[in-house]
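**User:** Here is a favour to ask of a fellow structure person. Please take any protein you like and set down a full record of it. No explanation is needed for now; the record alone will do.

**Assistant:**
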Amino acid sequence: MKMKTLQRRLLREAAIALALARLAVRVLPAARIVAWARRPPKRIKRFAMEEAGNVSWAIETIGARRWMQAKCLARALAAQAMLRRRGIASRLCLGVAREGQALSAHAWIEIGQDMIVGGAEAPRFTRLVEFGGERA
């Protein structure tokens, strides 16, 4: 398969996954989303960091579009869904940080020790909880 065709497929899948994740965050109760995020992949594919990088690229590319306006939680949920479809175990992590008098929250995806989606901002947040995946 040509690289352009693969990229188009990934971008299309990312757009659908992000739209569904945004809808889920708005409509579904948090307990339902957490239960979904805890599910492991049906089959585990090891050594798939290149595929994980492609998923990350697609999610970040579509999520940054003005028409999508996907926040970090929707991006993390969509990325985890795409990774799960590929048999890649990942962890959805939620953290908080204090900004003056207010608290801010952030969600990101980890595979092993690598931060895949939302990892650039993650170090300044204190991890509260993680869902899914296996600890490496």
